[in-house]
Amino acid sequence: MRYFIVFSYNGASFFGFQKQPNQISVQETLEHALTILLRENIKIVGAGRTDTGVHAKKMYAHFDTQNNLAADLVPRLNSFLPPSIAVYNIFQVDQDFHARFSALHRTYEYYISTHKNPFTENSSWQFWRRKLEIDAMNEACEILFEYKDFTSFAKLHTDNKTNFCQIKKAIWVQQEEELLKFTISADRFLRNMVRAIVGTMVEIGTQKIKPENIRDIIEKKNRNAAGISAPAHGLYLVEVGYDFDI
Predict the structure, then answer these.
(1) Entry pTM
(2) Which of 65, 79, 81, 145 could bridge 85 with an S-S bond, Cβ 3.0-4.6 Å?
(3) Gap between the terminal Cα atoms of the chain
């Protein structure tokens, strides 16, 4: 039987979602807890990979098991997991459902603190020494919709078969007086793509480059043409869309 799991995590204490040798990952932590509680070797498949330090407000995964799950599995699992991971729901899905390949779109948010704030130091990029022009950054966002090849924002030397993505939403808003929020949604994302876009947008917001320069950056298909990668701790996966409501 295949089950779908809905959860969130604070990525500060993990080396990303995906399991890797000699490092603590979200995937390994969840698999370990499920394996003990179900008394069966459990492997989970996530909706995507988040890098070291990146958070997820709503993440999804599936796993297969021979067991009928107890009604109290979610609270028992939460009691077993560290405070940095919270499980919200587990339910059965069709056997051919796949957390990654069945996803239709993914949405990320990135937060920038425009005033020095010790209470958001670990949850947003502290960028308060220079003013950011939001209108210019949103002008650049509109240009993103013109393209599908985002090689310039992709991490180098990955095993991507294609760097094509369809961006469906990209916008900056002043969420609070001291906080900017960038929301971006696409059918898929490349490794480091959102952080590279944010780093480039900040160069536009500080008038280091003009909004229209983002066309040249994209068309060069060269990661060195884009801006720095924004810090990981300001990035959150917030939604993964499927063809049913969760």
Answers:
(1) 0.94
(2) 81
(3) 19
